[in-house]
Structures are given as structure tokens and as C-alpha cells.
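Re: folding output
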Amino acid sequence: MSAELEAAFNSLLIGQVPAMWIKKSFPSLKPLGGYIADLMERLGWFTDWLNEGLPNMLWISRFHFTQGFLTGTKQNYARKYKIAIDLLDYDFEVLESVEAAEANPPQDGINVIGPYIEGCKWDHE
């Protein structure tokens, strides 16, 4: 067994995500059980996307490389309107609720939700 495989085995024994997995994976500080549960949820979400089409709300933090996804979104817009991608920039609008965003997908662009705590209210006063 190589040193890298032995290190992975030892990580699994103590319930940690092996370093060799993290090198190719989404960032996570969770222990092995939480990591696997998160991985399964992500895979289910992507499977639903493949089977049912683009969802009205995209959970941005589920992507391993979010910058690449956002660039791809910009490329789709640039191709649709035949505009050089270098001339485009992002514009953001904060919506009142997740339900409103899911019910009203934008004609151009995407609705995203990021790392947040459900039910959390921000105190702005």
C-alpha cells in the first residue's frame, strides 16, 4: 500500500475525510459522516437537474468551482445577445424570499442562493 493510500485508510478509521479526496472535492470542514451526507445531497441535486432541467433556484455553494459556473452563465448571455463577454459584468438583485425567486425565474440570468442559515433574519438597524 502506498503512503497516500495508507494515509487515506487512517483518515477513514478515525472518521475524517482523506486528504486525497479533498484535493478533488468541494471544500468541506465536516467530519466523514457529514461530508458523505453532503456529497449525497449534492449528487441528488445534480441528478434532479439532469433529469428535470435547470431549477429556478441554484444553490451556488453546491458547485465545486463557483467562479467557473458564473463565467459560464455570463457566456450564455453573451452568446444569446451576441455581445463580447469582456463587455459584460454581473448585476445582483436581492429578492424578498426564496419562494418568490423560485416562482419567478429571470428571463436572462439565474437565481442563486448561497451559504446562509434558513430562517436567519439580518438586523440592519
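--- second protein (sequence, then structure) ---
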Amino acid sequence: MNTTKFNQACWADEQERFRKVIGAVAPDQLDWRPDATSRSTRALIGHMIGHVQDVVELAVDGVINHRNEVPFGTLEEALQLFDSAYDEMKTELASLDEEGWLRHADFKLGDFLIMTAPVEQLAWLMLFDSIHHRGQLTTHLRPTGRHVPSLYGPSADEESAEH
């Protein structure tokens, strides 16, 4: 398996993990944050949705105009936005040929150029950063009365429920 196929497989493999964590959020606690300087639960979810939409744009247009936070109303709407973007992203990544993966693309935040790199490198960057933000989101669950779902094995919440 080459690295582009591996990237696509990793994105596909992580989809349900992202969905489980977003779905575990307390719908009435979207504006909760652990500290005034931290992102709220809503902001983290909107940021992760933005990352997926960024990768769609990367695959289609060869650029990321970074979406720092995608707005949504309810948790259900967030899950719908996430699912739609994720499915589109998988389709668009699969449509790239070798040249498409190797072409250089710009990663921008407004008028600021963050970096220029091959599409594949930016796709990996966005995957790793999305996983990082998912980890941040898991830290919002217990303080808001929710359980942390298993991701790569049982969580302490799931183990205690079994014993």
C-alpha cells in the first residue's frame, strides 16, 4: 500500500471514532469550556468539521482556506454536517491521481499563508490535527456528565460499566 492509499485508509478508519466522540457530547453543554482561554465544546466540534471541509477543498481546488470554526445550531446538525463533509472528503481523496497528491497547495488562514506543501502532506497534517482536537473534545465529556467512548480499546468509562 502506498502512502496516499494509507492516508485514505486512515481517514476512513477514524471516521467512526470522530463520530462517537462528537455523538457523546451533552447536547445542552455545547458552550461549556474548561477554562476561559479554552475552546468551547461547540468551537471544537466546529473546528473539526472545518478540518474535514478543508480537506475537501484541498482535494478539489488544491488549496485550504482554513475554516477555523464551522457554525451549527444543534448537536444533531453538527453530526449531519460532519457526516456529509466526511463522506465527500473520502470521495474526493479517492479521486486524486498520483499527480494530484503530489501537487503543491497553499494552506491559508484569511490572507495569511500558513504554508505551501504537497497535497498529501497537508492531508496528513489535517488528519493528525483533527485527531488532536478529538482528544481535546474527549476531555470535555466527563466534566459535563458524559462518558468517554472507546476509541482504540475500552475506555475507563466502558470498563467500569462492564465490571
